[in-house]
Amino acid sequence: MKLKRVHHIAIIASDYEASKAWYQRVLGCELLTEVYRAERDSWMGDLALNGEYLIELFSFPNAPVRPSPEAQGLRHLAFAVDDVAACRAELVEQQVRVEEVRIDPHTGRKMLFFFDPDGLPLELYEA
């Protein structure tokens, strides 16, 4: 098996409209397609970052809350950036919950965690 690349990351939002707006405003994602799936009472939107399809955003009625970022499963989604500190300042300006810049102990590179409207941990990594 030869994998070519990551095709998408799927996220279930508690408030689809708020999360869709947040991913567009804060991360600069572009909404490519959106469909309401009546049989599941669920919205699904495809969001692209820099023209590349990346995030499937879903709504599901009564979806359970994730107990902790340390729970089994996908831990976080990371984005490569040129300047973590500058990006942090932009996030703070937009009143996004962010942690302090850290140094990855394995690579020596700057990184930080920030959180979407549902508290999903996202990472910026200086690459």
TrEMBL record:
GO MF term list: metal ion binding
VOC domain mapped to chain residues: 5-127
Keyword Metal-binding: yes
Signal peptide residue numbers: none
Pfam families given in the database record: Glyoxalase (PF00903)
Keywords attached to this entry: Metal-binding
InterPro entries: Fosfomycin_Res_Enzymes, Glyas_Bleomycin-R_OHBP_Dase, Glyas_Fos-R_dOase_dom, VOC_core, YwkD-like_dom
Protein name: Glyoxylase I family protein
